[in-house]
């Protein structure tokens, strides 16, 4: 049946969410963007959605042939058989015999004939949804901005009493260097802008923005999207304040009593924990210990792996006594290998939301923040975006672990480019220290917003026997240099333990 509400779906659920329910029915809309930004794909999906609802739909193509449109549709698996396609790419079909007259300028005959043919076709089909692709041909025929605006206004007045929802596509190729025709914005009930950004490395980024939508409280700002077979995958901008749910901030135990004692039971749910330290200190293994304990409690967990390959991580976890495979098989654990050159911040945030809302994820690990930042080097405001993700996870009661490698092999007390007081609620610092000519590891808690924490420095041992935390080490020199040297007795230090 025909959609009878005051809203018409765009054919994309996420875009309808951005539009706060869809497009107001019976209005004129402008979809603008450079070639390759996804306008035609969006328009086709809009018409197919209407056809699936039993509505008459009309696609008016002013530049492409029917064969070209069908080829594009086939690449997405679209079936346009239920959609009327009106092709105006042939000049002879528009001009007819008037082409030979000399009283009027040829462009006046062409434009007038084009408008009349379109109106006749609309009267014949009586569509509920119409797409014009694209306005650049009409702009070229009009030659004068005032005449062009007048013709668009006439189209708007023509469709107004007929109740059709109309999308005008503008590829911004005509006019001065493809400059956007903002004077058309005032004529349209809504304006949607699609952009394609070419990066120095990796896939192109695409994003959309609702410029205006009269009478609708839409979600403003840029929203990332990708073009995939079947249409656009839109990733609405994450607004953490809209997703608060009540929860109890109880501790998340690691299963190792000495480790949990450092935070008086463990990090609380709804908080983010930053594990920082030089390469090779065991940051990922420490996070995996919390993941394995959560899965044993029956809590779903997700790991986003930016740096290490999943196979390598699984082998290393097994060598440290952490068997994650049963949890992967049961579906409690999901490990996502992130391709650093292919993902956008919006797509990543949307994936996190899906893990929480669809899978019920209770613990999430990002390994690592350096990998996240390196994956999107040309994106702006990445720290603000990761903070919005953390705020969302906190409000959903999800425990988050962030792995942050320090610069260099031994590191300093600095956590790199990140402001830890701004990003994380809890900071766990792992350091190397020297004793009796050997490198060893020490663990300490720098901060814990959610409660008390131990201030001692303890030895950390990670071997085939798993993770162990030793007694407090009180005899150190050069602690603030980031590479403290232990000068006490060797006896209190732990020795390597092999698997029984």
UniProtKB/TrEMBL annotation:
In Swiss-Prot or TrEMBL terms, this protein is called non-specific serine/threonine protein kinase
Domain of life of the native organism? Bacteria
Domain KaiC: where?
6-248, 250-483
Q: Entry's PROSITE patterns?
A: KAIC
| Molecular function terms from GO | ATP binding; hydrolase activity; protein serine/threonine kinase activity
- Cleavable signal peptide: none
Name the lineage: Bacteria, Pseudomonadati, Pseudomonadota, Alphaproteobacteria, Hyphomicrobiales
Instruction: Identify the EC number(s).
Output: 2.7.11.1
Keywords (alphabetical) are:
Hydrolase, Kinase, Phosphoprotein, Repeat, Transferase
PANTHER family (alphabetical): CIRCADIAN CLOCK OSCILLATOR PROTEIN KAIC 1 (PTHR42926:SF1), PTHR42926
Which principal EC class is assigned to this enzyme?
A: transferase
* Organism, as annotated: Aureimonas phyllosphaerae
Q: Which Pfam families match?
A: ATPase
What CDD domains does the database record attribute to this sequence? KaiC-like_N (cd19488)
């Amino acid at each position: 049946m025909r959609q009878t509400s005051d809203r018409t779906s765009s054919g994309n659920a996420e875009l309808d969410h951005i539009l706060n329910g869809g497009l107001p029915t019976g209005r004129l809309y402008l979809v603008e963007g450079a070639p390759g930004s996804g306008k035609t794909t969006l328009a086709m999906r809009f018409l197919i959605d209407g056809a699936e609802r039993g509505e008459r739909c009309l696609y008016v193509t002013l530049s492409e042939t029917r064969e070209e449109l069908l080829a594009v549709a086939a690449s997405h698996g679209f079936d346009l058989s239920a959609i009327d396609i009106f092709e105006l790419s042939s000049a002879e079909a528009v001009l007819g015999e008037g082409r030979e007259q000399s009283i009027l300028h040829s462009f006046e005959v062409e434009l007038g004939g084009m408008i009349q043919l379109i109106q006749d076709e609309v009267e014949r089909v009586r569509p509920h949804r119409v797409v014009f692709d694209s306005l650049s041909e009409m702009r070229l025929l009009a030659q004068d901005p005032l005449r062009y605006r007048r013709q668009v206004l006439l189209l708007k007045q023509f469709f107004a009493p007929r109740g059709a929802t109309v999308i005008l596509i503008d590829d911004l190729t005509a006019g001065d260097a493809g400059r956007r025709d903002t004077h058309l914005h005032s004529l349209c009930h809504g304006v949607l802008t699609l952009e394609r950004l070419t990066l120095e490395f990796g896939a192109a980024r695409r994003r959309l923005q609702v410029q205006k939508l009269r009478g609708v409280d839409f979600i403003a700002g840029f929203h990332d999207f990708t073009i995939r077979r079947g249409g656009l995958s839109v990733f609405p901008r994450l607004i953490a304040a809209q997703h608060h749910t009540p929860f109890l901030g109880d501790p998340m135990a690691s299963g190792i009593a000495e480790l949990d004692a450092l935070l008086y039971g463990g990090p609380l749910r709804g908080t983010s924990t930053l594990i920082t330290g030089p390469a090779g200190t065991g940051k990922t293994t420490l996070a995996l210990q919390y993941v394995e304990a959560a899965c044993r409690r029956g809590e779903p967990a997700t790991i986003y792996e930016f740096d290490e390959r999943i196979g390598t991580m699984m082998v290393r976890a097994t060598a440290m006594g952490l068997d994650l495979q049963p949890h992967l098989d049961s579906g409690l654990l999901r490990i996502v290998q992130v391709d650093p050159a292919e993902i956008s911040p919006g797509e990543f945030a949307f994936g996190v939301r899906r893990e929480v809302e669809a899978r019920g994820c209770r613990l999430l690990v990002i390994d690592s923040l350096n990998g996240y930042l390196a994956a999107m080097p040309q994106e702006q405001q990445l720290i603000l975006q990761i903070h919005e993700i953390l705020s969302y996870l906190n409000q959903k009661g999800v425990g988050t672990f962030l792995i942050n490698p320090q610069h260099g092999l031994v590191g300093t007390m600095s956590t790199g480019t990140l402001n830890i007081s701004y990003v994380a609620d809890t900071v766990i610092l792992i350091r190397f220290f020297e004793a009796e000519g050997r490198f060893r590891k020490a663990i300490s808690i720098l901060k814990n917003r959610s409660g008390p924490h131990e201030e001692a420095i303890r030895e950390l041992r990670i071997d085939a026997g798993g993770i162990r935390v030793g007694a407090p080490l009180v005899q150190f020199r050069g602690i603030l240099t980031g590479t403290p040297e232990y000068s006490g007795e060797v006896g209190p230090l732990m020795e390597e333990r092999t698997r029984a």
